[in-house]
Write the C-alpha cells for this entry.
Amino acid sequence: MALSAKLEKGHRYNTAASQAILFGGCERQMARLTVTQVLEMARKGERIAMITAYDYPSAQLVDATGVPIVLVGDSLGNVMLGYEGTIPVTMDEMIHHTAAVVRGSTNALVVGDMPFMSYQALDSEAIRNAGRFLKEAGCQAVKLEGGRAVAPLIRKLVGYGIPVMGHIGFTPQSVNQLGGARVQGRSSEAARELIEDALALERAGAFSIVLELVPAQVARAITERLEIPTIGIGAGPDCDGQVQVFHDLLGLYPTLQFRHAKRYAELGEAIQAAVRSYIQDVQDGAFPTDAHSFSMSAEEETRFHELLGDAPSQAQVG
Ligand code: KIV
C-alpha cells in the first residue's frame, strides 16, 4: 500500500491531537516530538528525516534544524570511538553519549540504540537496559536489531512503556553471521522473510522500522504492507522516512564514500583547511593579535615592572 493509501486506510494508533499533556494536575506543553506524532506524520504522508548524533554539539546543531528524530546509533563505535564496527560498543558508552545528545536537544525525539549483547541474552537484562536509556540517558525510545526473533521482546518492552524502533535488513551487529555489510533480501525468498519480519515487529508494537541495505522494491513492498513508518538507509526512495549517519552526510571522513549515503557538505576538508590555517598563523606570528588578547592598565603594568625590577618598556617610555 502506498503512502497515500495508508492515509485513506488510517491506522490503529491513537494520535494526540495536541502536544499538551496533563502533568501533575496542570497542563504542560511538551516540546519534544512524541512517537504518536511520528505515527501521525507517516499517516499524513509527511516524509520523516532521521539523523544520528552522538554528543552535545552535534545534537545542538541538528536539533536546531527541526529534524524530527535523532538516533544515537551504535555506529558510535565506528564513527566516534574508532572501533572496527558496532560489536564492541557497551551500554555505558551508549548511555554516556545518549545523555549528552538529550542535553543538547529540546525538539527531536531521541532514540537510543541498544548495543550488541545488551538485549540478546536475557529478556530481564534487555528490559533493564532499555529502561536505562529512558531513566539515565533521558531518551524517549530505543532501537534494536532483528526480526521475528526479537518480536516477543519488543512486545514486552512496549508493554512496559518503552517505545521501540525495529531494524531489519542489514543489521550491523550480525555482520559476522551475514558475512559482511551486504544488501539483504535480494532473492524472492529472502525478501518474503523480510516482509514477515517487518509484520512481526509491527504486530509486536514497534512504532517504526529501519530498513538498512534492502533492494528498493522490497522496501517498497514492506512500506506498503505496514501501518507504522519505515525509515530507510540504502533502501530506496519509497520508505516513509530516511536515516543518515551525521559523519557521512557532512563528509567528516573525506576518504569514505558509501553508495547509500549522500554528502551534503565537505566538513572534513573544511576542518582540516581551518586547522592548517591556524598552524600557519601560529608559525607566522599572525595569531593571536591584539584583538584576541587581554591587557592590564598602564598604571598596573608600571607597578608590575617595578615589582619585577624590570626596566620600563618602550611603550611606557614613549
Ligand atoms: O547505528 C546506526 O547509526 C544505525 C543507523 C544506520 C540506522 O543503526
Q: What stands out?
A: The beta strands are 20-23, 26-29, 48-52, 69-72, 109-113, 141-143, 164-169, 208-212, 230-233, 241-244. The radius of gyration is 25 Å.
